[in-house]
Amino acid sequence: MAIRLGQLIEQLGGSLHGDPDFLVQKISPLETATPSSLAFLSNPLYRSQLATTQAGCVIVSPEMQSSVPAGSACIVSSNPYLYFAKVTQFWRQQQVAADRDALVHPSAVVHPQAVVHPTARIGPLCVVEAGARVGAHSWLKSRVTVGEQCQVGERCILHSGVVIGADGFGFAPHADGWVKIEQLGAVRIGNDVEIGANTSIDRGALADTVIEDGVKLDNQIQIGHNCHIGAHTAMAGCVGVAGSAKIGKHCTFGGAAMILGHLTIADNVHISSGSLVSRSISEPGQYTGFYPLAKNADWEKTAAIVRNLGTMREKLRQLEKITKNKE
Amino acid sequence: MAIRLGQLIEQLGGSLHGDPDFLVQKISPLETATPSSLAFLSNPLYRSQLATTQAGCVIVSPEMQSSVPAGSACIVSSNPYLYFAKVTQFWRQQQVAADRDALVHPSAVVHPQAVVHPTARIGPLCVVEAGARVGAHSWLKSRVTVGEQCQVGERCILHSGVVIGADGFGFAPHADGWVKIEQLGAVRIGNDVEIGANTSIDRGALADTVIEDGVKLDNQIQIGHNCHIGAHTAMAGCVGVAGSAKIGKHCTFGGAAMILGHLTIADNVHISSGSLVSRSISEPGQYTGFYPLAKNADWEKTAAIVRNLGTMREKLRQLEKITKNKE
Amino acid sequence: MAIRLGQLIEQLGGSLHGDPDFLVQKISPLETATPSSLAFLSNPLYRSQLATTQAGCVIVSPEMQSSVPAGSACIVSSNPYLYFAKVTQFWRQQQVAADRDALVHPSAVVHPQAVVHPTARIGPLCVVEAGARVGAHSWLKSRVTVGEQCQVGERCILHSGVVIGADGFGFAPHADGWVKIEQLGAVRIGNDVEIGANTSIDRGALADTVIEDGVKLDNQIQIGHNCHIGAHTAMAGCVGVAGSAKIGKHCTFGGAAMILGHLTIADNVHISSGSLVSRSISEPGQYTGFYPLAKNADWEKTAAIVRNLGTMREKLRQLEKITKNKE
Question: Would B317 be classed as within a structural domain?
Fold first, then answer.
């Protein structure tokens, strides 16, 4: 596949400095680019790679334009990373234009009482249960389950292995063991939501679990019942959110962050990878809590001290008392 | 759907204060209940919600009965949360009574040498392999795999994406790399076990991995080969249990707790979310171990000190020595 | 099933002390072995079990031979654990020799433009997409997805629920929300790779995600886009690797270890369970970082001190100053 630079400019804007008939044959990182590649520079940290790149054309900001090597064309854009994102989308569209066939794969199991928009794609071996809805232009990749009564909005992408609407984890304790609380709610997913491979979102106990517009969830994520996740919040892989957590808009969660149940997280909160959120957060900002990595022998030493910090503090108090008495 | 209050009392007991012909049209939390809702109050912490609820009827304990608003009916039960659990089950039964069709979905792949009880339900696109057994009234939701020779007891629920009986992770080191140890055991699951979406339980290396009666596992859980999990133990989402761990009865594990291999955990042990269990536990109780969350700047400060706790302790010892010498 | 001891020696070598016509009817751990069992002793820690074992035959090292009970046969091998691994493989071969039927299960969805080697097995309800390749003698268990253009080498095993080639998690921030970066790379998996249940490996953004020969991944693992994992590296369950991490050869990762993005990890690095790797590691060795487990009350005490370690250090500095001034 190849795309003319002129075609890109027509579609996506930006100003081109170079030959509009130059054929882009691939999109590459700056450092591995070849003369037939289109590359981009977004982070000024990688500026040094610009000087030595072999790329036939580079997407740059106005400030970087003067640093583009003499032999390379460039596209100048105020936001090169966003421009690059749009190039990948255009590239993908050209690729798939040919092989769009049946929108609902014959191997998918779609319940007669499910409502799938005529423009939605349901991939091989997916299950869409009774009363479920899949909105316009949404795409369930292979082996996705959308459970009874659950709703998926428009332009969503659900990757393979996703499970929407399994039962929330609800049991009443009883002398003979746990008594199941039937989960009578569903899951409501807004528009432009993307959900990664093998991620699961449980249905609510009584009301619905809600994922607002523009939320992006990576792979292997667990969202408990009754959660509410605000618009445009993004979570990296392996994150877990316990039941009934209410998470604001425009938040980000690093990989394997964990959020306990019934907490409220404000808008614009950013949680670092590997951090456990054990209390509600009302103030925007970056929050962190993981034990620093060390050579094992060093960790053993500090961990032993951590276990006995109470003793250490006591000794310090004794010393303070003695020293104060002497003054 | 609607259920008469009188019908509930007939089925589930409890004493009704109100009109038995009142029609419950939904089950709701106290705070969002409407005049057609049935709600419940279990945790006295939420007592204040009782005063202002719009619920047509509330399930309460005898102590709370006097606080029910004048306009609302109430059902008095010694264990309102358990009563509520049973109401959800009754509600679900009425819902599904109509749409029970084929017990084994035609898209499921059930090996001719598998033994599925005639009352068990096997959902769409499930796989039940040779020699596997599924007991009476058990339900495999969509896209579940039960591997060769593995057994699922009675009244179990396995949610979508569950994998029972993948190979345990066993390799012998060798100069040329890892040599696979074929996993010759299976998985044996007792009665009344529920297993959440995308959870996996590996088959044993030689003997079987065993999950006893009444165990409840949430989503995205990993149980390694040869584990033995005692009756009525419950694990929240994203928990991992390494191979050959032996876990007692009536334990609970918070989300993302991790248990190392070859450990023994006593009955009635409770592990907090995000905690790593690195040694056997012989005494019942609550155990915790996660780094407390802080604003990132504060965490950076304390983490730097944690890395150097050895130095801090040394300084403290020096001071103690000096102070002692002076006395 | 039963295997003659003499047959094992013919196939796998080793020297037999006992009757070659003895029939092994099962393979068992030393402690639960019966007179018809073959067992093995690898770790000298379990030597005491050798004295009391009921096993009909035991695989031992030359040093242990003298400790084998009088009634038991033994196979002497310089590496009993490796020998045991090979026995399990031979056992499995005999078991499955009979029931090899169709290599590509009729319920699998294999795209006409996928290339599956004639010796590869594609299990029930798998999906192999356009342009994907599966090499000789590789085995996709049930419900595995191999995405477009992704390659699986020879003699690989992919367990149920595995997703190869879902989109990496890439978005450009924009005032209106996140703009998707189409993931134009694929996944390339070498030979002799094993991948556990419900594990996912994302396709690269531009170049490919690469898993080298002999890598072993357990269940519920997440590998982000553009990662490169060196040969013979092994990862236990629930590990997460963020995007663009470059991991060396012969590394091991304990369960639930997490590796942040864009890091470089040298060969022969070993990360303990539950540890977050937040910086590149250039030196081989064992690294650890998790908060030590304690009774909850003790943890609450030490966690409170950890939160205020800055204050504690300040007090220590004050004391040092005072003490020094007095000297």
Answer: yes
